[in-house]
Design brief:
The protein is built from twelve helices and 18 strands. By secondary structure, the protein is α+β, with helices and mostly antiparallel strands. Strands 1-2-4-3-5-8-6-7 form an eight-stranded mixed β-sheet, sandwiched between helices. Strands 11-12-15 form a three-stranded antiparallel β-sheet, with no helix packed on it. Strands 14-13-16 form a three-stranded antiparallel β-sheet.
């Protein structure tokens, strides 16, 4: 333990200069799990999914060899195969609901099904839940064409293959926290499965701590710009909570937290943890909920205030997305396995696995994290209470300059209070719980005790203030509007609904 703490202290105190040395502490168990991610296993899964001809949400559920019904049964069977190695901790089922015509992308009643794999955590006192999703359904150029061939290898066979590979590996050594793997349906028809799932999470009062939505993560080259790169991936995250009330906005304005929403903290965590374990891989933080005027299965969760992000390849190829199989002017179109990079998919899957496992092995976040202020001062004191669940060996104080996109320093302490000679004016701070193996919780941002927010800005009103609150409110309204804009066409590419 002494050697471990010394390594942490050295890491925290090393200056972040250009030529500074950086010590990276890895959990050997996670290293071993990451090494088990197989490109061949992922390729086999993609080939099987593409073999169902179409997985359109409105396609047949009666054909045992093709259509969405057969694909759902295949994924269910894979989960049940993994269950044996889990000590029966992994259970699987198809969660269904009858969906009626909506006058948009559903023209007949049908049974919507999400294929669920639930790996029950080993700590019966820990109610936290982690979730990874990918959508099983596919589509052609015409979003209502349910009969034509739509392999959906990358969109989103890649996301489903990634969550199945994570389930295969994690089921062999279940973590303390429950992990839920979901192959949703109905994404291309309006995020139908994700909305149903988000409603279920709320109804069942699940303590959902983080959701990783993987959608299109298996191709390394773009059309048009012809960029080829298998060393970068994007993670999209919302900065402002969509369900923020006046008091929430007051807190955001008081502390300058416009760039520190819960999804954005998860995105930073995904980057730091993933890059720690996967070589030659850079996670690019993108400061928006999704791509320009587009949307995905993380959005219904973000709308409800859950912590969710989207992971997508760095360079999308629209010749192989939402396209009928054809060749025009010597250019092949369609979403086939042959256009994918399975080593790239392996690395992106490993990023997810490392993040899920590190979070699942970490204690829960510190509680009641607050600044202790004694008037004007150039030092910063923060205190907190221990986490509610999980074995905690200590804490990290995180620091970054206000203009920095990522946490820049980590200072280890075994105490529940710390004073550092850095000003709150110039830095943001957060606190993580840490296990003995070095697994960190998500960061908890300090607040102010009691009603100190109102005392800090006693004359503030969102009606009479012409400043940042109005901008924040307009930003929130704009984000809500974008969630409901209909899909639009760009050349030959019909973009996913919004």
């Amino acid at each position: 333990m002494k050697k471990y703490i010394m390594a942490l202290l050295v890491t925290a105190l090393v200056p972040l200069a250009l030529h500074a040395q950086l010590l990276i502490h890895k959990d050997p168990a996670i290293e071993k799990m990451v090494a088990a991610v197989s490109a061949d296993s992922l390729r086999s899964c993609i080939n099987a999914l593409a073999g169902f001809k179409t997985r359109h949400t409105l396609s047949t559920q009666k054909d045992p060899a093709g259509g969405i019904g057969a694909a759902q049964q295949w994924v269910l069977h894979k989960f049940r195969q993994f269950a044996a190695a889990s000590g029966e901790r992994l259970s699987a089922f198809i969660d269904t609901v009858t969906y009626r015509p909506d006058g948009k992308r559903v023209d007949r009643p049908f049974v919507l099904g999400n294929v669920m794999g639930i790996l029950k955590g080993t700590d019966p006192l820990d109610r936290r839940i982690l979730m990874i999703t990918g959508h099983l359904d596919s589509r052609r150029s015409d979003v209502m064409d349910r009969a034509g061939i739509a392999p959906g290898a990358n969109d989103d066979g890649s996301g489903v293959a990634a969550l199945l590979e994570c389930a295969r590996i994690m089921s062999r050594q279940p973590p303390p926290v429950t992990v839920v793997f979901v192959a949703t349906s109905g994404e291309e028809q309006g995020l139908l499965g994700a909305r149903f799932l988000a409603d279920q999470v709320t109804t069942k009062n699940w303590q959902l701590e983080a959701l990783l939505n993987n959608d299109i993560i298996g191709s390394n080259h773009s059309n048009e710009t012809r960029i080829v790169n298998n060393t970068q991936v994007r993670v999209f995250s919302e900065g402002l909570p969509l369900n923020a009330n006046r008091d929430d906005l007051l807190k955001i304005r008081s502390l300058g937290l416009e760039n520190d929403g819960a999804p954005r903290q998860l995105a930073r965590y995904f980057k730091e943890t993933g890059e720690r374990y996967i070589d030659h891989m850079t996670v690019k933080l993108v400061y928006r909920n999704d791509r320009f005027l587009r949307n995905g299965d993380q959005s219904p969760f973000v709308e409800k205030g859950y912590t969710a992000v989207r992971i997508t390849e760095m360079n999308e190829n629209f010749e192989h997305q939402h396209q009928d199989l054809r060749t025009e002017r010597a250019v092949p179109y369609g979403d086939l396995p042959e256009f994918m990079d399975f080593e790239y998919l392996r690395k992106n899957t490993a990023l997810n696995l490392a993040t899920l496992t590190n979070l699942a092995k970490a204690p829960s976040v510190p509680q009641n994290v607050v600044y202790i202020t004694r008037g004007l001062e150039n030092s910063t004191t923060i205190k907190w209470n221990p986490p509610a669940t999980g074995a905690c060996a200590g804490y990290y104080l995180l620091m970054r300059e206000t203009s920095s996109p990522q946490w820049e320093k980590k200072i280890f302490t075994a105490a529940t209070t710390i004073t550092v000679p850095y000003s709150k004016d110039n830095y943001f701070f957060a606190v993580q719980s840490v296990s003995a193996a070095g697994n960190e919780s998500l960061p908890a941002l300090p607040g102010l005790p009691g009603n100190a927010y109102k005392k800090a800005v006693p004359n503030f009103s969102p009606i009479d203030s012409p400043s940042r609150m109005i901008l924040i409110q307009l930003s929130l309204i704009t984000r809500r509007m974008l969630f409901y804009i209909r899909a639009y066409d760009l050349g030959q590419v019909e973009h996913r609904h919004l």
